[in-house]
Design brief:
Layout lengths: L7 H16 L9 H8 L3 H7 L3 H16 L10 H17 L1 H9 L4 H12 L5 H23 L6 H11 L6
Length: 173
């Protein structure tokens, strides 16, 4: 039996990368745990130790990509310009990984994005009142993001941020 000193995060990211690679060849439903773990060079027990479903692996991978891209947590904002900048950065991130996101959405697994959004918000500690506000905002951003992906990313992150702030968050002005 092979022993490894790799961190759990490393192993989980490898499984996510392997799964995304295999999704280029066939649908997620047809990928076996054995294929994915072999490609990731981990044992089956590693998969079952950390995940219940392949969708959880993909959500973890998206969350890890997000965490690696941002050095700061989601934070409360006080001005319209801060809100616009935060939303623009958020959509710029998703645009930067569109080659990862598009196959997930195209295969009918948009729920993976929703899971990732929940994990991103769940990793941030706020007082209960602020947590609910963040969940509300991120749920809305998820809806916008999903529509943006389906519509082929017609707008830039800047255009989306300005439109959201101008139309949805008028109360900030």
């Amino acid at each position: 039996m092979r022993r490894t000193t790799a961190s759990p995060e490393y192993l989980k990211e490898n499984m996510g990368s392997a799964l995304l690679e295999l999704m280029k060849e066939k649908p997620l439903e047809r990928i076996t745990i054995e294929e994915m773990t072999a490609k990731a060079d981990v044992g089956r027990s590693t998969y079952f130790r950390y995940f219940k479903t392949k969708e959880e692996i993909l959500a973890y991978k998206l969350t890890a990509l997000y965490s690696n891209s941002f050095t700061h947590d989601i934070r409360p904002v006080d001005t319209v310009s801060e809100l616009t900048e935060m939303i623009e950065q958020f959509f710029s991130f998703w645009l930067s990984i569109r080659n990862t996101v598009d196959p997930i959405v195209a295969s009918g697994h948009s729920d993976v994005l929703s899971m990732a959004y929940s994990q991103i918000v769940g990793n941030t500690q706020f007082p209960a009142e602020q947590e609910y506000v963040n969940r509300f905002v991120l749920s809305g951003l998820f809806g916008v993001h999903h529509g943006w992906v389906i519509n082929g990313y017609r707008e830039s992150p800047e255009e989306l941020a300005r439109a959201i702030v101008r139309k949805v968050f008028r109360f900030f002005q």
